[in-house]
Each structure stands twice: as C-alpha cells, then as structure tokens.
Write a structure and sequence with these properties.
Radius of gyration: 16 Å
Number of strands: 6
Strand content: 15-25%
CATH architecture: 3-Layer(aba) Sandwich
Order of helices and strands: EHEEEHEHHEHHHH
Strand order of the largest sheet: 2-3-1-4-5-6
Number of helices: 8
Number of domains: 1
Largest sheet: 6 strands, mixed
Shape: globular
CATH class: Alpha Beta
C-alpha cells in the first residue's frame, strides 16, 4: 500500500488533537505503520493547530510535504485555506471541512478581513470537497463539543476504514461518561451524506 498523507487542521479547543489520536490508534490497530506530528500555534484556545498523520506499509517521516496531502480535514474554514498548499496537485486531493468560522485576533481587532469566498477557493483546489455543518450536527446530539468526532466519522468513511473497532477505541480513549455520546457522534459522521 502506498503511504497516505492526512492533515487535520483547526484551532485550539476544537478537538483536533483528540481526533488525530483516535485516528492514529485505529490505523495502528489495523496494522498500518503510522507516524503523527502535532504543530501548535499559540498554545491557547483559538490558536492554530495542525496535525500530520501518515500511514501505510512503512512510513519514515511524520511530516506531510507540501503538495502531497491526500486529504485535509478542517475543523474551521480559514485553517483549511491556510493549509491548502499541502493538498496534492493532481486534482485527486480530498478536503473535508466544517463550515465554521472562528475569527482570528486580527479579524477581531479589525486589522484583517475574513475571506468571503473561502469555500469557493477550497472547491477550486480540491478534487473532492465534503463541506458539512458539523456544529449543527453536534448541537442536534446535544453537545457542540463532539463536532470533532462527527468530522472524524466522515473521514473514516471517506478513507474506507469502517471495519476498525472505533467504538472500542473511543471507549478506551475518552472519559467514561462521554463514551456513548462520542460513539453516537462517530456514527452520525460515518452516515452523513
């Protein structure tokens, strides 16, 4: 199997790292060689977070090179735009993104403007775009904090990794009282059209 290159990007507090760790555990249990690397911007809520996940038969480096990502999963639109240059050039790259906007400090202070055509820019670059309102789906489950797990479910479906025992992995990775909600969120994501 050729090495697959995945980027997960968002802002602090969105659960980007938890989703990356769950994905990594599942891939290891499926028998893949997996490397993961986390890059944090400001170590505070709403600072940029980027995680590289590479898996395959044998993987040597945890870092996805620019123009080599098979898939980018973004928890926030601007973070997808900032990292779009990682997506492969051959119009085969996939972008899964949450239609959520978190205004960075520059926008909040009136120094910068949030792009109004972000989804169009992503669509132009991606071979396949899956855009969802993860926040609405999470609110429908009663907790907006499971948006990350819903997006992880979409990613799992897109990569064809449904045979992995994700419910057990969640049960072993999150606090017991949140296990059923996270398992339900994962199923919602895997079944989203």
């Amino acid at each position: 199997m050729n090495t697959k290159n995945i980027l997960l990007t968002g802002v602090g507090g969105q659960g980007t790292i938890l989703a990356s760790k769950l994905l990594t555990v599942g891939l290891i249990e499926a028998g893949y060689d997996v490397k993961m690397s986390e890059v944090h911007g400001m170590s505070q809520r709403e600072g940029p977070v980027l995680t590289h996940v590479r898996y395959g038969e044998k993987v040597y480096s945890p870092i996805v090179e620019k123009r080599k990502a098979d898939l980018i999963m973004g928890f926030e639109e601007l973070e997808v735009l900032r990292n779009l240059d990682y997506l492969r050039d051959d119009s085969q790259g996939v972008v899964i993104f949450n239609r959520m906007r978190v205004n960075p400090i520059g926008v909040q202070m009136g120094k910068d403007k949030y792009p109004t055509n972000g989804e169009d820019l992503i669509r132009e670059r991606a071979g396949k775009l899956i855009a969802i309102d993860g926040q609405a789906e999470a609110r429908a489950l009663g907790n907006p904090r499971v948006m990350n797990i819903i997006l992880l479910g979409v990613l799992i479906r897109e990569l064809g990794l449904q045979a992995i025992d994700w419910n057990r992995i969640i049960a072993e990775s999150v606090k017991e009282k949140y296990v059923p909600l996270n398992q339900q969120a994962l199923q919602v994501g895997m079944n989203l059209e």
